[in-house]
Amino acid sequence: MSAAPAADVAPDGSPVEVFERLPAEPAAGYVRRAVTPGAEVLELGCGAGRITRALLAAGHRVVAVDQSPAMLARVPAGAERILADATTVDLRRRFDGVVLGSYLVNHPTLGRRFLATTACHLAADGTAVVQRYDPWWVRSATTGEAAVGPVTVRVTRLVPGATRFEATVVYELGERRWEQAIEAAILDDADFDTLTAEAGLVRGRWLDEHRTWAALHHRTRAGTAVGGVSPAPG
């Protein structure tokens, strides 16, 4: 098995072809059920477009933002593709749905800025869908591997600290192999809710049983209450 060339890797260490080949589900399903059918959706840090592709197929209009030209080149042409840093981009538009996946909220220094961008692009009555690392999994320091579509994902090192963790993830696709080093903040429920509140957002409900995908709304949206988990996808 051979190591893939560095040109195949985005600036954050994410392997481009792997992220294109990873299945869109169940993540895309969480987004589809959280936002209004047919809504225009902004995806921040869209990567190679696996969720974008699924949203387009479901009839959504999608604006896809990523800072990696190699990743953005894989996003379907049906989306409006924008090469930009998701911590600073200002499209001067509001969207019914905003997606912040890829654990960007857990970035050790930029999580607040990613959430600020999410909030400033979210319509008054819109829904943001945000993904975090499972804090219970992180604190358990459990390594292992799983087949995710055609990709084998192996966590070979996981070291939790008081507020952050470090991990090494190996991806295998056919005969190729990539290794990615990760450093991220640990966000318990209270930490997550504090960050979202600083951005003017509030958690409406968890979208999956592992409490890693959350639906967020502006704090001024009537009827919003923190708590609850939506049914798991079929």
The helix/strand order is EHHEHEHEEHEHEEEEHEE
In the sheet with the most strands, the strands line up as 4-3-2-5-6-12-11
* Radius of gyration, whole Å: 17 Å
How many distinct domains?
Answer: 2
Which SSEs are present, and which pair or pack?
Blueprint: E1 2-3, H1 16-21, H2 27-34, E2 40-44, H3 50-57, E3 61-66, H4 69-72, E4 80-83, E5 95-100, H5 111-121, E6 122-131, H6 135-140, E7 144-148, E8 151-160, E9 164-173, E10 176-185, H7 189-198, E11 201-206, E12 213-218
Parallel strand pairs: 1-10, 2-3, 2-5, 3-4, 5-6
Antiparallel strand pairs: 6-12, 7-8, 8-9, 9-10, 11-12
Helix pairs in contact: 2-3
Question: What does it look like?
Answer:
With 234 residues, the chain is an alpha/beta fold. It folds into two domains: 2-133 and 187-217, Vaccinia Virus protein VP39 (Rossmann fold), CATH 3.40.50; 136-185. Helix content is 23%, strand content 34%. It has seven helices and twelve strands. It has a seven-stranded mixed β-sheet with strand order 4-3-2-5-6-12-11, sandwiched between helices. It has a five-stranded mixed β-sheet with strand order 1-10-9-8-7. Strand 2 (40-44), helix 3 (50-57) and strand 3 form a beta-alpha-beta unit. Helix 2 packs across helix 3. The protein starts with a strand and ends in a 16-residue tail after the last strand.
